[in-house]
Amino acid sequence: MEVLGKYPGLPGLLIAGLTSGSLSTISSALNSLTAIITGDFVKHYRPDYSEEKLAVISKIISIVSGIIAFALVFVVAEVNKTIQVAPFATLFHGVLLGPILGAFALGIFFPFTNELGTLLAVIVSVLLSTFVGLGNIFSGRAGLLPDQKLTLSTDGCLLTNHTINDSGKNLFMPRYIGDWKESHANDSFFLKIWSISFLWQPVIGVISTFLLGIIFSGIVNIIRTNSGPKVNESLLSTSLLQLWKILLGQAYLDKWVDYDSPPFTGDPKAKLRRNNDMANCKFKDNEQAFSVSVS
Questions:
Q1: Nearest C-alpha neighbor of 35 from the set 15, 58, 56
Q2: φ, ψ for residue 70 (rounded to 5)?
Q3: Closest listed residue to residue 139, CA positions, set 70, 60, 196
């Protein structure tokens, strides 16, 4: 706006671009939130609801979520006058993104992981990422973190106002501008950990959840007397499942993978129908057995 604001029509185009970009992001977030609440909570606890009723409920959830999100804009604007909210918003995003991805990866790639081990790994990963993120924020505000920005000055550059000759000798010799690592070589261990950029927080969450999930699940499997519920074959990666067959053997996988159940659809009504069919079959078998015994 400051550079191109004097040209007629361009400010309107810029505002239209910002508005459409914001609306696309907000609509995607609201649709995802509505789908998650409807699919994971409403369908789970009310599997007998019809599709028309679920559609109405999803629209109500979307409207309420939009109103709450719009109201939070004014709350954040007031809070931001005393506390900068942007670092904490980035922290919240980074802390949750990594563990969620790590939990999904554990469930897809490793059939022997369990819910308790994954839950413990997610909790520890969230606490670890929160520790690193909060330390980065507060130590940065205290001026304890090193300034890792490189200089943008061209002073002393050998290519400035010179023509490259055929030999090119010493033209690309770097000029020593001082190393920030030297001035912070004696920093404490925690300060070095807190110096990690916020961009690495999701990576920390993924790796810690992945490794800790395998370790905790292994400990839980050792403590448990039984192997727990089996995983439907359709929920696992086919290529990784073939690899586990080669490495561990089919007999070992039979303890963790369910090959007999139909493919998982995620529809609670399908599960309800299967349970009703099983109950009807048992009732018919009992009825036939009773009629045979009477006759």
A1: 58
A2: -65, -40
A3: 196
